[in-house]
Amino acid sequence: MVKYLGKRIFYIILTLFIVSTITFFLMKFMPGTPLTNQAKLTPGQIHQIYKQYGLDKPVWQQYLVYLAGVVHGNFGISFQFSNQAVSYLIGSRIGPSLIIGGQGMILGVLVGLVLGSLGAVKANTWIDTTSTIVSILLVSIPSFVLAVLLQYYLGLKLKWFPIADWGGFMYTVLPTLALAASPLAETARFMRTEMVDVLSSDYIELAKAKGLGKVGIIYHHALRNSLIPIITIIGPLTVNIMTGSMVVENIFSVPGIGEQFVKSVLTNDYPTIMGLTIVYCAMLCVVLLITDILYGLIDPRIRLSGNSN
Amino acid sequence: MADNAKPISAGDFKPVTAGDRGNLDNEKISAPSLTFLQDSWRRLRKNKAAMICLVILIILFILAFGSSFFETHNPNATNPNLANLPPKIPGIDINGFNGTLDQSGTRINAYAQAHAGNAYYILGTDYLGRDLFSRILYGTRISLEIALIASFFDLAFGVVYGIVSGWMGGRVDTIMQRIIEIMLSIPNLVVMVLLILVLKPGMSAIIYSIAITSWINMARLVRAQTLELKNQEFILAARALGESSWKISFKHLLPNLSSVIIINLMFTIPTAIFFEAFLSYIGIGISAPQASLGTLINDGQKNFQFLPYQMWYPAIVLSVLMIAFNILGDGLRDSFDPKGRE
Amino acid sequence: MENDKNILEVRNLKINFNTYAGTVKAIRDVSFDLRKGETLAIVGESGSGKTVTTRSIMGLNSPNAVIDGGTIMFKNQDLLKKTRKQMDEIRGNDIAEIFQDPMTSLDPTMKIGKQIAEPLIIHKGMKREKAYAQALEMMKLVGIENAEQRINNYPHQFSGGMRQRIVIAIALVNYPEILIADEPTTALDVTIQAQILDLMKELQAKINTSIIFITHDLGVVAGMADRVAVMYAGKIVEYGTVDEIFYNPKHPYTWGLLNSMPTMDTTGTELPSIPGTPPDLLDPPKGDAFAARNKYALEIDTKQEPPFFKVSDTHYAATWLLDPRAPKMTPPEQIIERQKHYAKLTHKTIDQHKDTHVEEQEEQL
């Protein structure tokens, strides 16, 4: 287990190194500098600013300086907000993103599990059809459309929740709902397939032969066996949430990193884009690592083969 | 039990002759034999929802690609005098399609106000007076083009990558899998955004970025399936007979991979359409004045409170496109793998 | 119950399956008894309806199965009339089942101790500790070594044979009155097969249960069963004691089955087989379903279904060959050998009871 962990962490570091390298050189090819949008500067001022951003050094030196910075969590200085460190910018904005992302994930997965299992247990009834329709709709309607509709109908028309901005829990509700749609639909679809499979397996037949009632079969045997594989889709779901948050935060004016990412992209704020790219990758790597470990802990088949190795 | 039947004559107790026995043959195969794909198609045809979606997609294809022939308005021509006109279909007098607008409680005829004369726009116009219907059709065409391109890269790159990785095994496989693992730990959208920034926003940048990200899932699934098939007897037999790897891949491997490939393709397509719309929506995709469903939704959203049709129509078309591909994909999966759903 | 000795009486059972292609008549009028403490083997090829019959006894047929008639009497109650909840109380308590493939019939994520204790907790309302203690006893009884430690293991930590022992432990933990074994050794190695069969016999003696043993392998039947019923195309075509079926078979299908089974005396290089395939039960043939594959078929076989002809008090066969009007047919050589052996076996009994004109007719056949 320790060996496995070490190996995984090594690969995560390797991945982050490759990602930082690629983004660094990609950004070097980009048009635009910190001076774009700022006209009429004297050559002296330009030199001054280049020095401030370290752009007067050769590219390989800039690269080494950047890498050294990344190791220490320093991603340079934002082009857009002069004098603000990218790491500070990210640090101050990651909170709201984690809150609505986490809430969206939990809500989506939980409701998805219920919907998916209901669909499987009541296969080929109206409940199944409803659950299938809901998940097809939610997986198909793009998050930016859903977010606008939620904002208009639940926020503006019904006035149940604030339509935008960031404050207490009430401000998180609409963004959370918008983000929950995709994990909800994916989980429901996955869970239904998984559970239908499990319910037709021999050990469920044996459980019936034991005289276990329907509830007992689902609770003691079917649920556990179909829940385990769900862990494997948490990684892809996290990606969905990250993607969704970029528009959802924008629409609801949530001061998070998703909104920041889009803003930085539109203003060519390269240091911030690079920093956020690395942060996104790091978060995803951690989620993937955690889900892998969890999978090993929960599934007895993997757990034991891990111990014996 | 025997006595209730018709009387038995002594002649009935003759042994059956060899000729008669031929008539009793129950080994005759009465149904025509179907190939795997024919059989799947037969099952798919029974899936009503999937067939409806197939028809919808065919109609959308024809409308989008044929639009240049019957387009009544140029999708990019602006006409500020006729801006923000609601939908009007001649001869239909239902609110929402008769060119009237609800302005602070009273319905007014927007076309008359704009002195539009005989002009009509069946889905209305946008803030620059461009015909929404033509723009939606144009946007749909972009979406479908993206879909075709994504499928092409899925097939050309993803399938080959998967087969090579699975078939070669060993170190080649390990390296190829590491590359995939690294790609998987970067959110696709981030990769796309970085590429688009380097290549400058536009159709070609979107195409490249989709090409680079869309094949990964396909490659993984094809590899897994190839690994499984590789050790099966019929492949071993082909190898034992000395067939070349190329021939085995095309003659034996590909037909057996076809269901995995087709099913996954059907899920790549909506993802690609979504990403294009998404990028256009946030403003780094298809650039003005060209239309994409994503930019149309973004434009429409600004006026959603007062001119909801400007967002509803492109949003509905985009959603229908996604729903249709998803349901068709589900239907294909069920028809290829009937055990999933009764 | 018609007879006190019987624990289970199946009468005129008919079961159809609704499929998209039409109605499959899977069980077409099946009747049999299971005596207390005996082992009844149901033999037949795949699709003959063995499994559907036992699933009906368990009330576990798939949802598209329709019971078209008949009764299954157990303790003076018709199991076919019971609700799902009532059947839950019987399953795993009075009637238990062992499945074919031990590799897939255990829950991979549950410790085997809990899986064995589960029926006790469900039916006897036992507390966890007591149920586990009893499960441990059961594990020892079915021959699992180091039971104390292994009770906390998961199924994947056991071999196939061991897993089947666990499945047997689960089935027997409540001392059921009927045990249904659906090809319990088919998926196992030959050496393990023998062990499992021995174990079942040993346990049957210990806990005094009746067994319905389903198999397509006549070789397994010989050592296991008291009585044998041969099924073909959804019907029982012949039944009798194990000696009667093995040494004095009457139905041509039974002949075919016996001939295709290698014995110590088998000579030659080729093992005879029954030509053809079973009929399509979507549209069962008129007359005897076996006629098309039957070398000894009579004209009447194509027109009318044969009734059961009595061979002895315990032995019946549904073939027109037993009708007095039927021509004399010479069974395959191997069967004649078997019948000679049988004649020796039963010589004295035949002398004592001269009640069997059917028996004499046999000699002529």
Automatic annotation (TrEMBL), chain A:
Biological processes annotated in GO: transmembrane transport
Compartments where found: Cell membrane
Domain of life: Bacteria
Any one GO cellular component localisation term in the record: plasma membrane
Ranges that cross the membrane: 9-27, 98-121, 133-154, 166-185, 227-252, 272-298
Pfam families: BPD_transp_1 (PF00528), BPD_transp_1_N (PF19300)
Topology of the protein relative to the lipid bilayer: Multi-pass membrane protein
Keyword Transport: yes
Protein name: Oligopeptide transport system permease protein OppB
Gene3D superfamilies the UniProt entry points to: MetI-like
Family indicated by similarity: Belongs to the binding-protein-dependent transport system permease family.
Chief location: membrane
ABC transmembrane type-1 domain mapped to chain residues: 94-295
Keyword field: Cell membrane, Membrane, Transmembrane, Transmembrane helix, Transport
TrEMBL record, chain B:
Major localization listed first in the record, in broad terms: membrane
Coiled coil: none
Listed InterPro entries: BP-dependent_transpt_permease, MetI-like, MetI-like_sf, OppC_N
Residue segments, region Disordered: 1-21
Keywords: Cell membrane, Membrane, Peptide transport, Protein transport, Transmembrane, Transmembrane helix, Transport
Topological type in the membrane: Multi-pass membrane protein
Transmembrane segments: 49-70, 146-167, 257-284, 311-329
Domain ABC transmembrane type-1: 140-329
Subcellular location: Cell membrane
GO cellular component: plasma membrane
Pfam families named in the record: BPD_transp_1, OppC_N
Biological process terms in GO annotation: peptide transport; protein transport; transmembrane transport
Recorded family membership: Belongs to the binding-protein-dependent transport system permease family. OppBC subfamily.
Full protein name: Dipeptide transport system permease protein DppC family protein
Species of provenance: Lentilactobacillus kisonensis DSM 19906 = JCM 15041
TrEMBL record, chain C:
Source species: Lentilactobacillus kisonensis DSM 19906 = JCM 15041
Protein name per the record: Oligopeptide transport ATP-binding protein OppD
Location of this chain's protein in the cell: Cell membrane
CDD domains membership: ABC_NikE_OppD_transporters
ABC transporter domain ranges (all copies): 10-258
PANTHER family: DIPEPTIDE TRANSPORT ATP-BINDING PROTEIN DPPD, OLIGOPEPTIDE TRANSPORT ATP-BINDING PROTEIN APPD
Family recorded in the similarity comment: Belongs to the ABC transporter superfamily.
Matching PROSITE patterns: ABC_TRANSPORTER_1, ABC_TRANSPORTER_2
NCBIfam families xref list: oligo_HPY
